[in-house]
Specification:
Strand content: 5-15%
Low-confidence stretches: 12-22, 195-205
Helix content: 40-55%
Shape: elongated
Strand order of the largest sheet: 2-1-3
Structural class: alpha/beta
Distance between the termini: 38 Å
Number of helices: 7
Number of strands: 7
């Protein structure tokens, strides 16, 4: 919450100005998300838009399709359109994107992640720690053979860090790594998910 307050202080609420006097900002925040097909991102963006409306700001949303190269292009376009701040997802950036954000001098919050990369201004989850807690829960129930459906980790530091947490925790609990199985798949419709579940079952996870 501290990072949210810091970011909010940088995007001040507009005050009434005499008619014809130009604003020095556009009262618009830009959000770059990997996809809008995910309910997690859709709900988060909806909550952000509602919060910004309370501050008299609008929200401009673009999707990168999990491409860090495309994200860099979209960040540049949003900055060229004069957005007053940016809300990118995650902390893993294509070379030059972070410099682009910092050189713009626009406030930005790296979201959906709180695994510290040595940078300030992030808001979200401790992906490694939270994923490890799931393993703790399963082990406490008596499970020793664990399987994980993981999102694609390429260009997705949140999924990568959740996977890292699940991979590391069993060893800390004395469970052989060979007892851990993983199946990666993109978010899709139920029939394919059911086939993936059958696949895991056949692997005797």
């Amino acid at each position: 919450m501290g990072n949210w307050r810091k970011w909010r202080s940088a995007v001040t609420t507009p005050t009434p100005l005499p008619e014809g006097l130009a604003y020095d900002r556009f009262w618009t925040i830009g959000a770059v998300v990997p996809t809008l097909k995910s309910e997690l991102f859709a709900r988060g963006i909806d909550a952000l838009a509602r919060r910004l409306r309370q501050m008299n700001y609008s929200l401009m949303v673009v999707a990168s399709d999990y491409s860090m190269a495309e994200e860099k292009i979209l960040v540049r376009r949003l900055l060229e359109r004069g957005v007053d701040g940016l809300f990118p997802i995650g902390q893993q950036r294509y070379p030059g994107t972070l410099a682009l954000l910092e050189e713009s001098r626009r406030p930005f919050v790296e979201s959906y992640i709180s695994d510290d990369f040595g940078r300030d201004g992030y808001l979200g989850f401790f992906n490694v720690k939270d994923a490890a807690s799931v393993v703790d829960y399963l082990v406490a129930l008596g499970n020793r053979r664990i399987a994980m459906f993981a999102g694609i980790t390429d260009g997705n530091d949140r999924a990568y860090r959740r996977l890292a947490g699940v991979r590391a925790r069993p060893g800390e609990l004395g469970i052989p790594f060979s007892n851990i199985s993983r199946l990666s798949c993109r978010m899709t419709w139920a029939p394919r998910v059911r086939r993936s579940a059958i696949c895991v079952k056949r692997q005797a996870c």
